[in-house]
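=== RUN LOG ===
request id: a7f3
mode: sequence -> structure
chains: 1
length: 140
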Amino acid sequence: MSHVSSPARRSNHWLWPLLLLLGSITLTIAWLMAALATGTQAGWMAVLAALEAAWMLRLGGFRPGRARYLIAIAAVVVITVVANWFIASAYIGGPMGLTPWESALRMGPRLAWTLLSLANGLGEAIWLAIGMIVAWRVGR
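=== RESULT ===
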């Protein structure tokens, strides 16, 4: 019976990048919405990003091991950066009548860095660290 399930897993190995991309986009939007609804940076969403990344890799048939948890950790970092960029752009562009997507394209890296360094503190750094630990643990 294990012989039957092995080829099925191998035939789906191309699916994990699509699932990871889809999950990352939806989680980034959810993070933006949570931050705008609560008025905070919603750093706790890093833990959900870790769980989502590990789950999408597992669901996509990516084999357990070092590569899987490193990709999960990288996904958490990328989701965090993109979500924070959109949060900052939403707060800057909103009063000017711009959507977060329009404002994100116009905001430069220096302004984004300044805004993110002012908005993110120790709490968000701790949540990001917890998220990376969760990605490592669940992604193994």
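=== NOTES ===
The two ends are 25 Å apart (CA to CA).
The chain is about 80% helix and 0% strand.
=== END ===
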